[in-house]
Design brief:
This protein has 12 helices and 13 strands. The chain is α/β, with parallel strands linked by helices. The longest helix is centred in the middle third of the chain and has 20 residues. The mean pLDDT is about 95.
């Protein structure tokens, strides 16, 4: 039996340097602890998100992993750390701070916590330099946002960085951030429930229709969060447009459905029939367990959706860990949970 690997978990350090004092400017992320394992992340003086000890306490995470029979958590930055809007040199230093802190955290439970780094994607050469440093230090790959300002993933500089990731053997996890049209969605967390899926669909579609996938090495190991957003559910619309409109076809060499072989998605779709549909579109080889731990819109019990599904034991094993091992290029290991 392969390990159960949760590829989509986030963290915040328990503390980090005062970035506003170091660099100047406003709206830097900071953490304010209120006791009893509770804290607020703020952007400048404005509260951004309430978090708890599961973000920074290794024992709390391991307890949750034991409860959910998860052997390995792949730990990614929370996207508010990215700093893409900052000067590239500042962002590079911020990335180094958080990447090194994440390595320290993962060292508290080697093998069970595995890190993904962040990079200053607004400057691809600096991003490649930080990726190389992190890969040598023990990161398995990198988490990136789905865009940098108005640049989608088909931007030439970002494509160069993705090609470098393939050369470096780095897994790439694409996570939506800085969501579109937030001014029209001021309430009810609609930027997370509505715009996030759209952002991820946009990222995948941009790579397809621009011919980006055709130019990228097939060795690139790419995965998109939240089941690929709305992509799988609107693939038929995209396919129909590609077949019947030269304008909609873009520059891709193949029909859109042919590119599902080029990337993975996680399982964070929360509903049995939705997961079944996602697997039918992506195949049982391209979906990995992802819970979005420890945030409230994540799966409460990581892996439960897959374990209680109608899939065969063989497919469940692929979704729970086998596919993640291929995406991350990990050796097959025995389960470690109790």
């Amino acid at each position: 039996m392969s390990q159960t690997i949760d590829i989509h978990t986030h963290w915040f350090p328990e503390k980090w340097p005062d970035l506003g004092k170091r660099f100047g400017g406003q709206d830097w992320p900071s953490i304010r602890h209120s006791g009893n394992g509770k804290a607020d992340v703020c952007l400048g003086e404005k509260p951004f998100r309430k978090i708890d000890a599961r973000c920074w306490d290794a024992a709390c995470r391991l307890e949750q992993m034991e409860r959910n029979k998860v052997d390995v958590q792949l730990i990614s930055p929370t996207p508010v750390m990215f700093s893409y809007q900052r000067p590239a040199e500042q962002a590079a230093e911020v990335c180094k701070i958080f990447n090194d802190l994440l390595l320290e955290f993962c060292a508290k439970s080697p093998g069970r916590f595995r890190p993904l780094c962040q990079v200053p994607l607004q400057e691809p050469k600096l991003a490649a330099k930080e990726l190389d440093r992190c890969m040598q230090a023990g990161h398995l790959g990198v988490e990136i946002g789905n865009h940098v300002g108005l640049k989608n993933l088909d931007d030439p500089g970002i494509l160069d960085f993705l090609a470098h990731c393939a050369q470096a053997g780095a897994a790439v996890f694409v996570h939506p951030w800085d969501m579109m049209a937030c001014e029209r969605m001021p309430e009810y967390m609609m930027p997370w429930t509505v715009a996030m899926p759209a952002e991820t669909q946009l990222a995948i579609t941009a790579l397809i229709e621009s011919g980006g996938f055709d130019r990228l090495p097939k060795e690139l190991r790419l995965c998109f969060a939240h089941g690929g957003g709305s992509f799988a559910f609107l693939l038929g619309r995209l396919e129909n447009a590609w077949k019947h409109s030269e304008i909609a076809r873009g520059k891709s060499e193949l029909a859109p459905s042919e590119y599902v072989k080029r990337f993975f998605v996680d399982s964070a779709v929360f509903e049995p029939k939705t997961l079944e549909f996602l697997v039918s579109v992506m195949s049982a080889e391209r979906v990995c367990l992802g819970s979005d731990f420890p945030y409230p819109l994540g799966e409460e019990r990581a892996g439960q959706l897959i374990r209680e599904s109608k899939f065969s034991d063989d497919i469940k094993a692929k979704l729970l860990g086998g596919n993640a091992q291929r995406w991350l290029n990990l050796e097959v290991s025995q389960p470690t949970h109790g």
